[in-house]
Amino acid sequence: MTWLVTGGAGYIGAHVVRAFTEQGINAVILDDLSSGHESFIPRDVPFVQGSILDRDLVLDTLRRFDITGVVHVAGFKYAGVSVQRPLHTYAQNVTGTLALLGAMEDAGVTRIVFSSSAAVYGTPDTDIVTEETPKNPQSPYGESKLIGEWLLHDQGVAQGLTHTSLRYFNVVGSGYPDVYDTSPHNLFPLVFDALIDGRSPRINGTDYPTPDGTCVRDYVHVADLALSHVAAARRLDAGESIEPVYNLGSGDGVSVGEIMTAMREVTGIEFEPEVAPRRPGDPARIVASGELAARDLNWVMRHTLSDMVSSAWSARSTV
């Protein structure tokens, strides 16, 4: 079997690709390199440069490489920026997914694992988020991911598409010394860039209704996340039962303030963070149960917070 990974040159996608190949599953990458990096692509993995919005290119790729299924990671992933750029967000995440699903239908590819997000929940009114928690996205990004889930469901009803959506929480760490998070908006790379430049890292908001006033999130290691994509693909290939959505969450929250403490301990650099205003669209707390994913998708938190910070710092420091 051969799986296409859209966005496979990005931070998460590159880890997914390597997890597939290490488990003996052939992978092909489709990426427009708008935020991905060609240096993240293994030399022995076929790479097609282009956009999921190019339906003809996607169709040609699916047919040329005899694709079995798709892991759809490509998209515009910045919740805060999506508030200022809603049309761009919908074009990339909704129109792009429509084009991908249309090409899959034309090529007869009937399996997909979708990169969804905790952003579909907005600010949940519960201590622990489950897959049944009401969805109330508070940014165009979150809305676009929820629409993506709806599209998969409807295509499943209409065309027999088999699918699952994996709702990501805060993905951090590194599984390889040459792959790291380069997002200009994510906490870990922002902190590392500041420390390397001799600046004070910035915390966006210390007035949230949380114990230390900073946002509380699930932080999960990217290598753990990647392995669950492999498990999902195997279940789909085997025709085994699978839930339509899974939370890849830890069940434990970590605050941004606690992250800063871990950063100081791992890097050995003493600093006091600069406090900035909240970012639009950022909820105060999202912590989720990963019980369903643990049951079906080999979801295990194999890394501590210190592991997450140290692996990410080690990869970033080699640049």
Question: Brief overview, please?
Answer:
The protein has about 325 residues and is of the alpha/beta class. It has helices spanning about 10-20, 55-65, 80-85, 85-105, 140-160, 185-195, 220-240, 255-265, 290-295, 305-315, and strands at about 1-5, 25-30, 45-50, 70, 110-115, 160-170, 170, 200-205, 215, 220, 245-250, 255, 275, 285. Helix 1 (about 10-20) links the parallel strand 1 (about 1-5) and strand 2 (about 25-30).
Structural features, described:
This protein is of the alpha/beta class. The chain folds into two domains: 201 residues, Rossmann fold; 112 residues, UDP-galactose 4-epimerase, domain 1, CATH 3.90.25. It has ten helices and 14 strands. It has a seven-stranded parallel beta sheet, with helices on both faces. A three-stranded mixed beta sheet has the order 12-9-14. α6 crosses α10. The mean pLDDT is 95.
Proportion of residues in β-strands? 15-25%
Q: What is the total tally of β strands? A: 14
- The assembly state of the depicted protein chains is single chain
Main β-sheet description: 7 strands, parallel
EC number: 5.1.3.2
Pfam family, one: Epimerase
GO molecular function: UDP-glucose 4-epimerase activity
Keywords: Carbohydrate metabolism, Isomerase, NAD
